[in-house]
Amino acid sequence: MVGERSLSRIGVLVTVACLLLGLLTVRLWFLQAVDAPGLEEKVREVRTRTIKLTPERGRIFDLKGRIAAGNERILTITIERGVIAKPLARSQMWARLSGALNMTVSQLEDRYQSKRYDQLQPLPLKEDVAEDLGIYLRERSEDYPGVDVREEWRREYPYAPMASHVIGFLGAIKAGSEEEYYKNLGYDPDARVGQFGVEQTYEAVLRGTPGYVKYEVDSRGRFLRQLERRDPIPGNDLQLTIDLDIQQFAEQALQNELLLRRRTEAPQVMQFGEPDPQYPEVTYYKAPAGSTVVLNHDTGEVVAMASYPNFDNRWFNAGITSEKFGQLFPKTDDPDMSILVNRAISGRYNLGSTFKPFVAFAALNTGQLAGGTEYTLVDRGTYKLVSIPEERCQLNVKCVFKNAVCGNGAPCKYGRINVVTALAVSSDVFFYKIGEQIFTERGNRPVLEEQVRLFGFGSPTEIDLPYEYIGTIPNKALKQRLAASGAIAKEEGKGYYVGDNVQFSIGQGLLSATPLQLAVGYGALGNGGKVMKPRVVRAIWAPGTPNGKSGRVDLDAGVIVKDFSAPEIVRDVQARPEVLDPIVRGLKRVITGPGVTSDIYHSTTGEKLFRSYPKRSLPIAGKTGTAQGAKNLPWNDSSAFAAFSLSKKYPYTAVAYLEKSGYGSRAAAPVVKCIFTALAGKIQVSPALAADPLDIGSFEVATPQSLSNPLCLVGSGSSVRD
């Protein structure tokens, strides 16, 4: 019985063994006959490593070929992940490498644990190492298995901080939607991509095409031989429309004037002819920020674009700690302190009286001013709305609007004026009447809105820079949105009223625009009515434009891939001579005078300042503007000035906007005056200076800029809030 049981067990074991042997035979046959290619592929994958090769990023140079963004070859120490997969092997490797790399074990481990780096690529341990260290590690490859020295590229900005808002910088891919976007484009998680400026807009053009090298490796991840190589293709180069000489001058003039305004006392707040005791006797302008734009109004090409506060884009490649970065670029909700904002395209501003030429256009173009320049009114300093019944005026409805206050403490009285003189002396009363009548006499239709939109207000200019603000045009829909968001009272958001249109007519109220939009609009006045699309990139060049002399590329030896220099007309406003000529005459008179005489002589808003300007060399026409600030306090006023040349040879438009800096004629106008004096060749424009090496120990986000000769800023501005 026992023997039979033993034989039975043996039989079962033999059967099981035969089944297992059969299954093994079938599996072996399947692998050899059916899945042999897949098996071989897996073996090859285990024994090979593919390393990506970073392409050289395309360079950025200015109009004259000066390299504003280039590249420096650097060495990066990497290690194969398979070598350090096990904790013990990793800790031993970190102990050996920490001394050579001058990094702590915890710093190396942090790199390993970080999700920033591609898990399928060698881990970067340290960037920008000395050549000697690279040689040392290569000579001791047996001591440091899996460690390699890779050649990569670091972005350089030879003229930093010049034009930093236009150029931009390279930064890490941000978590969230940006991370997914770049992943879908094949970027590694640790790739550095264009942030701000043309570095961001033209990322796809500048990036180039990565290459790779495929190696055979042993079981420990050590390289045995190269199997395949595909070299990376460099990115295309960009040529800007920016002239760095003019850019440097514009930045210097802007910063100089802001500094002067910070040392200037604002007017006192008066009450019944006496200083208001609730406010300090002496308050200086804060003048925290500003911008200026110079463009060719025949082509739309931006010659200079400056924004302050500015920044040195080299900080983003400097390898500084997060603590220091936070000190240089503090997070803030205070718009005065925002450094990375390009105020020329992102600033949200009232335009003040610089907007009046477009209101004059609306009135003349629609026939609202009967007889055109023949139409006159007597400006007695105040304007009372005629469309609102007297009983409503008695019920706290604002019916009376005043001019700016003159030196005697009363609203200025300009006497009999027409559209030309109204622009010259900046009469609010004249434009209040336009604002009321163009609304009430046309069935409360948005005629003024329709007309000013022709010049691009309320729409993006579509400049080739990111984060452009489109602006706002006052209307019922805007007021409803603002009321729904709590920005204005719900009662106020119920409709669009005549008072709204009156404020709109002098560039106040809910109107907002950027300095660039203002420049495009004035450019259309200067070129006969054509709204041009602005650009900061003139051409895309084939990779590797040959170097010339003194930090320039040889433009004659390069190849243009795409040329943007042909002017692009967005819209022709069809400005008839009888409409445009009076506006240009009024703006020219702002610069040259004379003013008007009523009770006293009232000079034009720019007459005093521009006495020293070379009018014969480069005649210009322009307009001052003062945007009223918080609580209507004088030190919160922002200053605007816009002008265009009357010369076909020098078809330029320039705009300056200085925040919390006072009257338009006293802060913004001097900056534009300097720029046109330089364009006229009457003041020396120094060649753009290359930057000094970045001082890593400094806590200045950018080196201050100043004019070598600031006399062009000198002059007497208007004593009236213009």
Automatic annotation (TrEMBL):
Coiled-coil intervals: none
InterPro entries registered for this protein in UniProt: Beta-lactam/transpept, Beta-lactam/transpept-like, PBP_dimer, PBP_dimer_sf, PCN-bd_Tpept
Gene3D superfamilies for this protein: DD-peptidase/beta-lactamase superfamily (3.40.710.10), Penicillin-binding protein 2a (Domain 2) (3.90.1310.10)
Pfam families per UniProt: PBP_dimer, Transpeptidase
This protein's UniProt keywords: Membrane
GO annotation terms (biological process): cell wall organization
Subcellular location field: Membrane
Molecular function GO labels: penicillin binding
Domain Penicillin-binding protein dimerisation per the UniProt entry, residue ranges: 53-227
UniProt domain Penicillin-binding protein transpeptidase: residue ranges: 290-675
GO cellular component: plasma membrane
Protein name: Unannotated protein
Organism: freshwater metagenome
Organism classification: unclassified sequences, metagenomes, ecological metagenomes
